[in-house]
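Review form for a predicted model. The reviewer records the input and the model, then writes brief findings.
Reviewer: anonymous (R2)
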Amino acid sequence: MTEWLIQRRRNAGRWLAGLLLALSFVLVPAAHADVPVAQGQEQELVPPQARGEWRFDGDGVAFDNVAEGARLAGVVRLDRGSYRLVVRPETTPVNPSPWYAFRIIASRPGSAAMVFDYGRFSHRYRPWLRSSGSGGRAGDWRPATDAEFATDDDGVARLSLRLEAGDLVEVSAQPPVRLAEVERWIDALAQRMAAEVETIGHSVQGRPLRLLAFGNPDARDVVLVIGRQHPPEVTGMRALLAFVDALAADAPRARAFRERYRILVVPQLNPDGVVEGHWRTNAHGTDLNRDWGIFREPETRAVADALQRHLEARGRTLVFALDFHSTWYDIFYTVTEDPARLPGGVLRNWIDALDARFPGRIQERPSAATSNVFKNWVFREYGAPSVTYEVGDETDVATLSELAGFAAGSLMELLPADRQAGAR
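Model under review:
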């Protein structure tokens, strides 16, 4: 601990914040465990992680957590070239999705053997790496090899890397999708399609929440797509982009669909959590996907208010809604009592089409519309079919893009027929 404190004092102006954070998580983690946010109380900000650098000049290596989405609470030197990486969530209790992201900077050749310390939580994400040499350009992200990464029988994760002088290695739980990448996607799609882009509100920390609207502005029926309620769920974010790209494609089926429907997309609902590298929550420490119908948070309120405005503007009806996430497997969460799940319903036909194309890949898990998650709120409020579209953590980009594109294509084929039949 002493050497760690010395290293933190080198982080100009930030060592005190780092000390307090480390003490709160490392020395007395139980003091923060299982303390729920009080219902009905004014929300307070969760303490942001201290940003800075941990230098080990004798080893010729340094670590930092300064990039967008980084998550690293401390680094403890165990021996020469050996380190314990302290990773902690933004708040507790929390859904255990231990996100980490940091950089390693080498000033001379050597190695770094790292053990991940999540406190009482277990490892989830296999590391992804991106490297650049002195003055060089960063390469592509790649998964750590079996020679570099392993988990022990007791679940402890270990990463060992060879380093050359001038190396800068980015390590991340998933190849990140940063805010600017999605903003560029929004702007490019809007320009290509003359779509409308609206700032519907702001996050807790003041970042804009943008809604993309395209399709026939006079259409009476609306499809809503949202995503990134939970920051680490990167594969779900990529599936959302592929799904919406298919709806926006310059192809006969997509053009015909857009003539019949108005499509609303809010791709980044939790920008603060993405920037801070949160495991689950927004800047108030709230799981946004437990806030629908409660609306304590500005992010969920903004979407609900914007949706209502768009529906009331022309007497429209919400006919389908999707919320993109990630978990261990490809799963579609649906509402048990939704009649669209019955034979002949659009949801049943859609899931059956996906299962026929990707046999056994997607599990449907229906549940009663009782909790305050997005899909349940949509069904309770509007009676529309709604799906939590979960993508596996390990699903590769090519596969998730193919599946999302097929899912969009199937919905474009089935939804018009279902609506013409007057069924929901």
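Findings: The longest strand covers residues 317-327.
Further findings: The mean pLDDT is 89.
Recommendation: see findings above.
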